[in-house]
């Protein structure tokens, strides 16, 4: 039986980041990462293998990220965790004894049992599995009518990419607007308009009640309205569940949503220093509401993984993970959308008293350059103290990094009035005008409302 210092289970974003952080923080420790895949996909790049990339081999996490810092990679599948013995057993028959165990078990796409016809041929999900997705891409060749069910980020991006490849795509969303969990309605409506301009047929306010088939293969989807839509294939993009069955079997406690219970240092609860959990399998709370949260993002996973790795052998009170800010961004053609924190709708539902302010300007100055794009910023601010609780952004390619910056403002509990004296660097080709910077102008709108 092999004995090692740190055993990481899972080769996705959280496992990779946890292994790298652990090895660079504690270089004297032996760190071994075990994953069941020969090659690991970059999770956020998966939708783009359906169009822009056209090949999953262009979306691979390079092993050199691990091996260059001294992390050993083993391709195997864990079959059992023996908590008391500090051991993990594997499908190969090998058993490894660890000093520290990092669980980065990931998530699996959901296929609801209530959806009749979900087991027909050509009904797909979007797992982080290269073999499955390669087979799916091959089977889609020659087909024409594809229905994507669920208009979250993955559903929207997959629909747009398939549309680029010439498929006739229908995106089906039971809520009244797309991207409704991440954005307020005005942003969702705008995203839908851009998708439809590009040729995607978007249906909102209606769900799928049944998938029907002929000779075992999909041939139509019945909507909750009773309508029938022809389909050669159906892609389910209706969420993911934490992959925690093996942890549960080992007696590790799960919360009500089946995530592994963890503390702010990502140690498994009841508190043990031997096992940590990170990424999609790990419990997390919303940064603003403090409620248990189901957000699954590679960016959140990597933040948790860095926290776990840095605190694995020695806790630092300035390095906890204090909750997910849910920072997302996506692009539809040349138009980008970003969000951080909570939306106005969510804030209201959670009983926060908020003031919101929006401003639309340009992301260059002058705004008539060839690559100029409108930039709209919406701030959601606590009315009693002025703390920034959330923000939504629409614009061009600068949206992603602006959203990241706003996320940092939220994480550091910045007050909206501090933005009024915010010092920025501007350049005509790269940013909005210093006199009309949309983030600062949105703050001015909020502060004016606060004075009224």
TrEMBL record:
Names of the cofactor(s): FAD
Domain Pyridine nucleotide-disulphide oxidoreductase dimerisation: 334-431
Keywords: FAD, Flavoprotein
Signal peptide: none
Claim: Magnesium is one of the keywords in the record: no
A Pfam family annotated for this UniProt entry: Pyr_redox_2
Keyword Ligase: no
Family, per entry: Belongs to the class-III pyridine nucleotide-disulfide oxidoreductase family. Belongs to the FAD-dependent oxidoreductase family.
Protein name: Pyridine nucleotide-disulfide oxidoreductase
Lineage of origin: Bacteria, Pseudomonadati, Spirochaetota, Spirochaetia, Spirochaetales
């Amino acid at each position: 039986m092999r004995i090692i210092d740190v055993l990481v289970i899972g080769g996705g974003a959280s496992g990779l980041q946890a292994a790298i952080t652990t090895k660079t923080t504690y270089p004297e420790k032996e760190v071994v990462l075990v994953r069941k895949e020969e090659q690991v996909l970059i999770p956020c790049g998966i939708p783009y293998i359906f169009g822009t990339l056209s090949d999953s081999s262009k979306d691979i996490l390079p092993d050199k990220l691990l091996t260059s810092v001294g992390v050993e990679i083993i391709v195997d599948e864990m079959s059992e965790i023996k908590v008391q013995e500090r051991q993990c057993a594997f499908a190969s028959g090998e058993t490894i004894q660890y000093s520290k165990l990092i669980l980065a078990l990931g998530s699996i796409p959901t296929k609801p049992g209530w959806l009749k016809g979900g087991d027909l041929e050509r009904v797909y999900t979007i797992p982080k599995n290269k073999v499955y997705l390669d087979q799916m891409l091959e089977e889609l060749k020659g087909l024409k009518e594809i229905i994507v069910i669920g208009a979250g980020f993955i559903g929207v991006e997959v629909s747009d990419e398939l549309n680029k490849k010439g498929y006739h795509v229908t995106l089906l969303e039971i809520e009244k607007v797309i991207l409704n969990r991440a954005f307020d309605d005005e942003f969702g409506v705008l995203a839908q308009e851009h998708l439809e301009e590009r040729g995607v047929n978007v249906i909102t306010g209606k769900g799928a009640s049944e998938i029907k088939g002929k000779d075992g293969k999909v041939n139509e989807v019945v909507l909750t309205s009773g309508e029938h839509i022809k389909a050669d294939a159906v892609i389910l993009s209706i969420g993911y569940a934490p992959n925690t069955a093996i942890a549960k079997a080992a007696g590790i406690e799960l919360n009500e949503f089946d995530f592994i219970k963890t503390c702010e240092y990502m140690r498994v609860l009841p508190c043990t220093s031997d096992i940590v959990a990170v990424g999609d399998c790990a419990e997390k709370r919303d940064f603003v509401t403090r409620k248990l949260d189901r957000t699954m993002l590679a960016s959140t996973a990597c933040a948790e993984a860095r926290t776990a790795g840095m605190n694995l052998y020695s806790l630092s009170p300035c390095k906890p993970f204090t909750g997910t800010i849910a920072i997302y961004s996506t692009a539809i053609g040349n138009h980008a959308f970003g969000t951080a924190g909570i939306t106005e709708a969510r804030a209201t539902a959670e009983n926060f008293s908020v003031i919101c302010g929006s401003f639309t300007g340009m992301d260059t100055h002058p705004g008539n350059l060839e690559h100029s794009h409108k930039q709209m910023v919406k701030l959601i601010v606590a009315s009693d103290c002025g703390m920034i609780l959330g923000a939504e952004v629409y614009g061009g390619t600068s949206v992603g990094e602006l959203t990241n910056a706003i996320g940092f403002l939220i994480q550091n509990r910045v007050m909206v009035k501090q933005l009024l004296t915010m010092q920025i660097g501007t350049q005509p080709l790269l940013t909005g005008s210093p006199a009309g910077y949309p983030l600062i102008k949105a703050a001015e709108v909020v502060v004016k409302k606060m004075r009224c």
